[in-house]
Specification:
CATH class of one domain: Alpha Beta
Order of helices and strands: HHHEEHEEH
Protein name: General secretion pathway protein GspM
Oligomer: single chain
Mean pLDDT: 76
Number of strands: 4
Distance between the termini: 135 Å
Number of helices: 5
Radius of gyration: 40 Å
InterPro entries: T2SSM_b
Strand content: 15-25%
CATH superfamily of one domain: Ribosomal protein S6/Translation elongation factor EF1B
CATH architecture of one domain: 2-Layer Sandwich
Organism: Stenotrophomonas tumulicola
CATH topology of one domain: Alpha-Beta Plaits
Largest sheet: 4 strands, antiparallel
Pfam families: T2SSM_b
Shape: rod-shaped
């Protein structure tokens, strides 16, 4: 006759059942259902946060556009690039800029004079902007030299003074001068406006455009290669850089 289960047996059976259920959950449910769903929940939360950030940026679009217009208007009033379209014209403008700065610092060239102005070629091969440079040599007093450099670097368009060399030297241009001053040489550098357009293909002559197409070659007949209509080559267009020594004057 079987013995009736005791309370201890019932608790032991319940513990074994819970252990089997827990093991089944760990082996079958958790890795195949719980882990993927939790990963999906985390991805949803991350996407919601990203959407909120993007929406906040989109809400700021009117303010950003207004600020961008203000910056563009400010840059238009103070152009940073040279206004000339070619390197030759920009080099001539640099020379005139130097002469104006010298005359402004020393009217009549009594205390400051331009000894030499020589355009320099742009020998950079990997440059993204066209650099226009001029080698300048001045003989000025200390105060006049400071005024000239300040005028060149703070005016518009933006210019840069590089490779500045200053030597103390005694010279006398006229009997009214004290005969003391500086012999200064430097490179005055500016940049042309960046071009974003693409050079169009050259127009074909009217005779060539009106000429009828050549007859189709028969099967087995060789077709001559290298005809003008096979390919079109467009060469890069670049502005010539003034040779060194193109502009030199002595006062």
């Amino acid at each position: 006759m079987p013995m009736p289960p005791t309370a201890r047996d019932r608790w032991l059976a319940l513990a074994l059942l819970l252990a089997v259920l827990g093991l089944g959950y760990l082996l079958l449910v958790h890795p195949w259902f719980t882990v993927p769903w939790r990963a999906i929940d985390q991805e949803i939360v991350a996407l919601q946060e990203r959407q909120q950030r993007v929406q906040a940026q989109l809400d700021q679009q009117p303010q950003v556009e207004a600020r961008l217009r203000e910056v563009r208007d400010s840059l238009r009033q103070r152009p940073g690039f040279l206004a000339e379209a070619t390197a030759e014209g920009a080099a001539a403008a640099l020379g005139a800029r130097v002469q104006d700065a010298v005359l402004s610092a020393s009217p009549g060239n009594q205390a400051c004079v331009v000894s030499n102005r020589t355009p320099m070629p742009d020998n950079r091969s990997d440059a993204t902007r066209v650099r226009v440079a001029m080698q300048v040599r001045l003989r000025c007093g200390v105060e006049e030299m400071a005024n000239v450099l300040h005028t060149l670097e703070t005016g518009t368009p933006r210019l840069f003074v590089e490779n500045l060399n200053i030597l103390a030297q005694r010279f006398q241009q006229s009997p009214d001068e004290a005969g003391t001053g500086l012999d200064v040489s430097f490179e005055l550098v500016g940049y042309l406006q960046p071009t974003t357009g693409v050079n169009p293909l050259p127009a074909r002559p009217a005779e060539e455009a009106a000429a009828p197409p050549p007859p189709a070659a028969d099967e087995g007949e060789p077709v001559p290669a290298g005809s003008p209509d096979d390919a079109a080559t467009v060469g890069p267009s670049s502005d010539a850089v003034p040779e060194e020594g193109g502009i030199a004057d002595a006062d």
